[in-house]
Hints:
Largest sheet: 7 strands, mixed
CATH topology of the largest domain: Rossmann fold
Structural class: alpha/beta
CATH class of the largest domain: Alpha Beta
CATH superfamily of the largest domain: Nitrogenase molybdenum iron protein domain
Number of domains: 2
Number of strands: 13
Order of helices and strands: EHEEHEHEHEHHEEHEEHEHHEHHE
Helix content: 25-40%
Oligomer: single chain
Mean pLDDT: 90
Shape: globular
Distance between the termini: 51 Å
Amino acid sequence: MMRICSLLPSTTEIVCSLGLRDSLVGITHECDYPPGINKVPVVTESLIDHTDSTSIEIDRHISAAIHSGSGIYKIKTDVLKTSRPDLILTQELCEVCAVSYSMVEASVKELKGQQTVLSFEPIKLEGIFDSIEKIGTFTNSEDVSKPLLKDLRSRVSNVQKKVTDAQDMPHVLGLEWLDPPFIGGHWVPEMIESAGGIDVIGLREEPSREIKWQDAIKSSPEIVVLMVCGFDLNKTIAEFRPARTGVFWDNFNGSIYAVDGSSYFSRPGPRIVDGLEILAEIFHPALFPRKHSEDDWIKIT
């Protein structure tokens, strides 16, 4: 049996969706899905404790760590050695999201035997599907990956076809961070557009980026979706309530929705399609009767 070490929550989800959960010998400290995955040895740790930090405090800590070159995460080399992986799954897309590729390379040099390192940098929905296909091919799991991909693509196509019957397309601001404000990037603008919305600031396949509140005011959104990176729904709501001040929020007359960003928007894995369907339920409730629970998204009044 192939021994797999996943250094991304998204690839952990992909591996499990392919029926290879028992092949996992190492995961990250942020891997929390599917349930029970915490029984797998954890090979990374955060160098910054964000447990009780606000959005602005987290942003300052991360910015300081990146600028100083000290990094945000660490690989537990002793645990990685003990796990004896054959395959290591990692990324080069975002040093804020996971351990850096250079850190992975350095750690692999200390391992015995032969290891294959696969890196993933999806910036669009099809890129996410390509990641699933690549892992399926490398692990000889095409019998599972092919029908899974067929289903995921079919669900995306179903949403895209149904929104053509929409009477209008709401102007949407997708916020990936609250303080300072960041807009969702990479696949998020595509998700918003595929769900029948118009992303007022975000650009397809471009990284998320910080904006000024004046930019948000000028964009005149009708809907704001709080899809905070790394936050579940409850933490997003708790973070938003004290942050809902300032000229933009004081004068915003549209609708505000909070979603489970960590599960359905931040991680480029199979559940990204659930995120697309959630947006469709929010934007066009007449076309998409609600299927996702209030643990996944709510309207903030």
